[in-house]
Design brief:
The structure holds two protein chains of two kinds. By secondary structure, chain A is of the alpha+beta class. Chain A has one domain: 2-Layer Sandwich (Uridine Diphospho-n-acetylenolpyruvylglucosamine Reductase, domain 3). In chain A, α4 runs antiparallel to α9. Chain A is globular and about 50 Å long. Helices cover 25% and strands 19% of the residues of chain A. By secondary structure, chain B is α+β, with helices and mostly antiparallel strands. Chain B folds into two domains: 76 residues, Ubiquitin-like (UB roll); 65 residues, DNA polymerase, domain 1. Chain B is built from six helices and five strands; from the N terminus they run ββαββαβαααα. The chains are: A alpha+beta, B alpha+beta. At the A-B interface, α2 and α5 of A face β4 and α5 of B.
Chain lengths: 280, 151
């Protein structure tokens, strides 16, 4: 395996694919390389070519979660979602671009069961152990998206600038289909460079976990109010970050026997999040 | 590939495979076994080191990523005059049992007190949340952090 330091974002992007894998902070990728979940002939190191830092609402994709959680310029929901993620050790390395693209924590997938996401014909979690799994979009794959910041950015209506295009963060994600089992719409040779985050009138991120720190969300709820409109987005409830049209959309969820409790938690967190947003 | 690393103020060279973690290189190639290898998933914090002054899990950082940056391990904390105040406090408070988590907790505590010399109980809990201990129940570890903060 080779370790490559590209000259530019374009050079980095064009070298990806065919065994070349992008490496930013490494907090998700390094253990997956070790466990054989990702095969790489070449690691393309992004640190020196992907923008890092925050300037007037634009966030470099290489900015770490630790940097974002303390930036007073940023909306509260994003700062809280970053602060509630992982542990201090991981937030100091993990970048926001990598966080948006992190792989699921589903243990069937991590243990390389021939599951739907790995190209197989069924979701083992649906019949098996699925307490941490999905309540929405779970008919083919019941994994739960692990990113807290992704839910915050979805509620905030953030947009992404990649090496190829600009797109809303909502369009970064897709549910797996028979033909394509990917959970993101990013091309193989496409890199996220920057995020453009609108400033809401008020926003908040609430997270239910098995313990008060260093746990993935059982349910995370981001709420962002822009004038009369409030947008809600959820983490840990679907294979992708989930936009909730309105609180009663929770009644259309499709929980598994082991995830029904998540609907109750989501109802409570949505109620609390909305109540906590100051009104004008 | 050959890389140069600045570890505890010393310029060291090592021949590494591109996929080798900083933890592996510190322990197996540079003779610095203080950082412990436990979960190798970033969950336990036993391998905590400072990279350019930031607290990281050395098991999640490739050695190649650390090239050109300053690494401080638990071996780099004690000075010529003896134990680092955090190490002395851990010993005095009885915060060490099996000892496996101790190097990581010592580095994490030193990092906390460097930035926040008088942390509250909640700030201590948050700062240490990425370090797991299976023996002590944490009470004596928190005692040690407070003791070190007072010295």
């Amino acid at each position: 395996m080779k370790f490559v330091r590209p000259e530019s974002p374009e050079a980095a992007a064009s070298s990806l694919g065919n065994g070349s894998v992008a490496l930013a902070g490494g907090t998700d990728l390094v253990p997956m390389l070790r466990d054989g979940l990702v095969q790489a002939d070449e690691l393309v190191f992004l640190r020196d070519v992907v923008p890092r830092g925050v300037q007037s609402g634009r966030i470099g994709a290489g900015t770490t979660l630790a940097e974002l959680e303390v930036d007073p310029e940023l909306p509260q929901a994003l700062r809280e979602a970053c602060a509630a993620s992982a542990s201090p050790q991981l937030r100091s390395m993990g970048t926001i671009g990598g966080n948006l693209l992190q792989a699921t924590r589903c243990w069937y997938w991590r243990l390389r069961f021939p599951c739907y996401l790995h190209g197989g014909d069924r979701c083992h979690a649906r019949q098996g152990t699925h307490r941490e799994h999905a309540i929405f979009g779970n008919d083919r794959c019941a994994s739960a998206h692990p990113s807290d910041p992704a839910a915050a950015l979805l509620a905030l209506g953030a947009r992404l600038q990649t090496t190829r295009r600009e797109l809303p963060v909502a369009d970064l994600y897709r549910l797996p289909t028979e033909e394509n089992r990917n959970l993101t719409a990013l091309e193989r040779d496409e890199l996220i460079l920057e995020l453009d985050v609108p400033t809401p009138d008020a926003s908040v991120y609430l997270k239910a976990m098995d313990r008060r720190a260093w746990s993935f969300a059982l349910v995370g709820v981001a709420a962002a109010r822009f004038g009369a409109e409030t947008r809600l987005a959820l983490a840990g409830v679907a294979p992708v970050p989930w936009l909730l049209e309105n609180p009663s959309a929770l009644e259309q969820s499709t929980p598994l026997p082991g995830t029904a409790y998540k609907v109750e938690i989501a109802r409570a967190l949505v109620r609390r999040a909305l109540a906590s947003l100051p009104t004008t | 590939m050959r890389i140069e690393l600045d570890v505890n103020g010393e310029q060291l060279e090592a021949d590494v495979w591109a996929g080798e973690s900083l933890l592996y290189v510190l322990r197996e190639r540079l003779g610095l076994p203080g950082s412990k290898n436990a979960c190798e998933q970033g969950e336990c914090g036993s391998c905590s080191v400072l990279l350019d002054g930031e607290l990281v899990c050395a098991c999640l950082v490739l050695a190649a990523q650390a090239e050109g940056h300053e690494v401080v391990t638990v071996e780099g904390l004690a000075g010529a005059e003896g134990l680092h105040p955090v190490q002395a406090a851990f010993a005095r408070a009885g915060a060490v049992q099996c000892g496996f988590c101790t190097p990581g907790l010592v580095v994490t505590t030193a990092h906390l007190l460097e930035r926040n010399p008088d942390p509250s109980e909640d700030e201590i809990r948050e700062a240490l949340s990425g370090n797991l201990c299976r023996c002590t129940g944490y009470a004596k570890i928190f005692d040690a952090v407070k003791l070190a903060a007072g010295t």
